[in-house]
Amino acid sequence: MRVSRFILAGVLGLVVAGCACGRKACAPRDEFEPGFVSLFNGETLDNWVVMGKAAGWKVRDGVIHSGGGRGGEWLRSVKQYGDFILRLEWKVSRGGNSGVFIRCKETGSPWDTGHEIQISNEQPPRDDLHCTGSLYGSVAVNPRPDETPNRWRQYEITCRGKRITVKVDGVTCVDAEMDKVPAIADKPLRGYLGVQDSHTGIGKFVEYRNIRIKEL
Fold first, then answer.
1. Burial of 41 by CB count in 10 Å (0-12 exposed, 13-18 middle, 19+ buried)?
2. How far apart are CA 44 and CA 87, in angstroms?
3. Which position among 66, 118, 130, 200 has the lowest Cβ density within 10 Å, counted as fewest Cβ atoms?
4. Going by C-beta distance under 8 Å and a sequence separation of 6 or more, which residues neighbour residue 111?
5. Is residue 116 in some structural domain?
């Protein structure tokens, strides 16, 4: 009986620890992701600068929420990054459009000054150069990720010098050398991170959670 009680106590302890954040996104624990730093605490936008209308962004239930047609434009990171591994989770509605920006400038369109990793459930579906996981308009995906809406997805985006890789739900869909792609060959190797608002009309949305980064 004593052994059974100890086992039960241990299991309950793990369950409590795993649920300690409730419905909010927890900062990653260093023993699981050494070197990663959380950029979103599940409660505020303290690590971000709103580049559009504040009404376009809300933090609720531990996620960043953007509703379409509210002019949120994008959230910019406070600091700039060069080489890094960026991990985050996102969810987009049916017909939705958004994206993650890397190495972009503070002014100008972030997809022009840096790179946009597309998030899309547009109907009809976009081609492989403009779909989820692509370096929008520059590098097509291969293979093409599942774009079923209203499901949490994972991005892992790695920048090492002029090499950029994108994983969707653990599968590499982009592995690009900038020098081999004329459209991005001269883009900067350092800049801000960003997440785009719900870049479609009213009724669509995009959400983000568990945003963390490791500088290389």
1. middle
2. 19
3. 130
4. 99, 101, 104, 136, 137
5. yes
Q: How confident is the model at residue 201 (pLDDT cuts 50, 70, 90)?
A: confident
Contact 84, 61 (CB under 8 A): no
**C-alpha 102, offset from chain centre:** 10
Domain-located, residue 191? yes
The amino acid that residue 186 corresponds to is D
Residue 14 lies in a domain: no
Q: Could you give the C-alpha distances from 125 to 30, 78, 120, 121, in angstroms and in order?
A: 38, 33, 8, 7
Place 30 in a pLDDT band, splitting at 50, 70 and 90. Answer: low
| Beta partners for residue 174, in sequence order | 166
| CB 180, CB 59: distance < 8 Å | no
CA 98 to CA 106: how far, in whole Å? 18
Using a 10 angstrom Cβ sphere, with 0-12 exposed, 13-18 middle and 19 or more buried, the burial of residue 71 is: exposed
Name the pTM for this structure: 0.85
Task: Extract the tokens encoding 185.
Answer: 């060959």
Q: Per-residue confidence at 31, pLDDT binned at 50, 70, 90? A: low
pLDDT band at 200 (very low <50, low <70, confident <90, very high): confident
Domain count, the chain: 1
Domain range for 33: 24-215
Structure tokens, 60 = 């609720």
